[in-house]
């Protein structure tokens, strides 16, 4: 089968969860191809997959990573034009690759192109409801009502478009451990197509050596290990990394601190400042994740999911005005898996107090371990693999996955045929 992947190219999170999926398809003998844009293009290339760059749709941001609503709005006409160019590019690439199924991660242009080519498609999406970003709290009730109404209209408007896909797959946990609680609100227009499969993770905790063995290999002693993994766009990651580096370099030597800027680099020797080691990129983040005592994150969906799979407490510093990050940060705090410090509050004392509070309270670790036991029952890659095969008209035994797939009528045209959610 020929599988066409189209992740959103803003930052690396979308491509990051498509790559392990693509590896599964290749392992099973299928052919894969990628189309994306922005930072995701070289990222996919380094993973060894064929990729084509398509016209980008851009979101503007300020120097501190804050979403710049005015500049993004001003770029609206240009983005609409680039979106139409993107649809045209997708139509051409899907035809040229002779795709049999399309897997789109948060990209509407690919869903439209697949529908026009009458190719079945699987949409990966955890932001079912888009939230209007804002930095300052909305105090007036009338403004809150307007915001809520606009978001509801957007939910149904996008719902009418997302439903053009064969299946809508949410890579998030069901309650009570849903990560993007504010965003995982589906439209009634595609509920019959909806599948919640758990977050995608390319390396599970049980695939790694025991924690103590990993800590010994990495040279960690009895000191608590803090792993700060930055995500987002390149400017955003550089800004927050600079802030954290200044603060962490003053931290007591009672800690071992690893700061990953999240910027892929060929030469990746760490810069050491007191208890802090700064890396441009961490190659094996899972080994480091399993070895650490605390994860510091921006609140990216993938990173928070990985911490939950590995049972690691979190300190979230969400991007200002980033509705998804802010919502996920709130979820982490509500689930008792960590604390939140806003970027404008960052200082030496504030960060040290938060770190001390989490590491000094065993209840955070216990709740993180409970979340890990819940997460262990999900295998999103296998679930999505089965859903994609079924969308393309292929069927096989869940218990005998290695058996040759059997052809059934493909789910094309009206896409009204249903099947039960795949077991997880």
Describe this structure in words.
The chain has helices spanning 13-27, 40-46, 69-74, 76-97, 108-116, 141-162, 211-217, 234-248, 285-291, 301-310, 323-334, 348-359, 362-375, 380-391; strands spanning 2-7, 31-36, 51-53, 101-105, 121-124, 167-170, 194-196, 225-229, 256-260, 271-273, 276-279, 294-297, 314-316, 338-340, 394-395, 406-407. With 424 residues, the chain is of the alpha/beta class. The chain folds into two domains: 2-198 and 379-407, Glycogen Phosphorylase B (Rossmann fold, 3-Layer(aba) Sandwich), CATH 3.40.50; 205-375, Rossmann fold.
Mind sketching the topology for me?
Layout lengths: L1 E6 L5 H15 L3 E6 L3 H7 L4 E3 L15 H6 L1 H22 L3 E5 L2 H9 L4 E4 L16 H22 L4 E4 L23 E3 L14 H7 L7 E5 L4 H15 L7 E5 L10 E3 L2 E4 L5 H7 L2 E4 L3 H10 L3 E3 L6 H12 L3 E3 L7 H12 L2 H14 L4 H12 L2 E2 L10 E2 L17
Parallel strand pairs: 1-2, 1-4, 2-3, 4-5, 5-6, 6-7, 8-9, 8-12, 9-11, 12-13, 13-14
Antiparallel strand pairs: 10-11, 15-16
């Amino acid at each position: 089968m020929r599988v066409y992947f189209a992740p959103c190219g803003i930052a690396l999170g979308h491509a990051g969860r498509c790559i392990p999926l693509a590896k599964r398809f290749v392992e099973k003998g299928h052919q894969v191809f990628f189309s994306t844009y922005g930072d995701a293009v070289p990222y996919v290339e380094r993973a060894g997959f064929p990729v084509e760059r398509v016209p980008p749709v851009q979101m503007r941001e300020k120097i501190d990573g804050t979403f710049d609503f005015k500049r993004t709005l001003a770029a609206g006409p240009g983005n609409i034009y680039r979106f139409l160019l993107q649809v045209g590019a997708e139509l051409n690439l899907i035809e040229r690759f002779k795709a049999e199924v399309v897997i789109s991660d948060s990209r509407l242009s690919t869903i439209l192109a697949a529908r026009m080519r009458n190719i079945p498609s699987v949409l990966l999406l955890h932001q079912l409801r888009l939230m209007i970003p804002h930095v300052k709290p909305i105090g007036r009730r009338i403004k809150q009502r307007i915001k809520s109404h606009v978001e509801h209209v957007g939910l149904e408007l996008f719902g009418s478009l997302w439903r053009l896909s064969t299946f809508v797959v949410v890579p998030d946990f069901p309650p009570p451990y849903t990560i993007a609680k504010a965003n995982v609100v589906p439209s009634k227009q595609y509920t019959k197509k909806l599948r919640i499969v758990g977050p995608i993770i390319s390396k599970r905790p049980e695939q790694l050596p025991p924690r103590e063995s990993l800590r010994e290999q990495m040279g960690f002693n009895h000191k608590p290990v803090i792993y700060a993994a930055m995500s987002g766009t390149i400017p955003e990651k550089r800004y927050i990394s600079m802030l954290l580096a200044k603060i962490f370099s003053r931290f007591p030597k009672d800690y071992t601190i690893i700061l990953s800027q999240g910027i892929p680099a060929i030469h990746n020797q760490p810069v050491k400042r007191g208890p802090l080691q700064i890396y441009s990129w961490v190659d094996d983040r899972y080994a480091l994740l399993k070895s650490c005592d605390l994860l510091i994150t921006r609140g990216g969906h993938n990173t928070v999911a990985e911490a939950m799979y590995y049972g690691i407490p979190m300190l979230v510093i969400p991007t200002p005005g980033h509705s998804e990050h802010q919502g996920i940060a709130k979820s982490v705090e509500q689930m008792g898996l960590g604390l939140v410090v806003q970027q404008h509050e960052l200082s030496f004392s504030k960060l040290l107090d938060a770190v001390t509070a989490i590491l000094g309270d065993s209840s955070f670790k216990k709740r993180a371990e409970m979340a890990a036991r819940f997460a262990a029952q999900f295998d999103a890659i296998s679930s999505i693999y089965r859903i994609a095969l079924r969308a393309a008209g292929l069927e096989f035994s869940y218990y005998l996955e290695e058996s040759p797939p059997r052809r059934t009528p493909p789910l094309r045209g009206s896409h009204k045929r249903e099947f039960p959610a795949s077991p997880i």
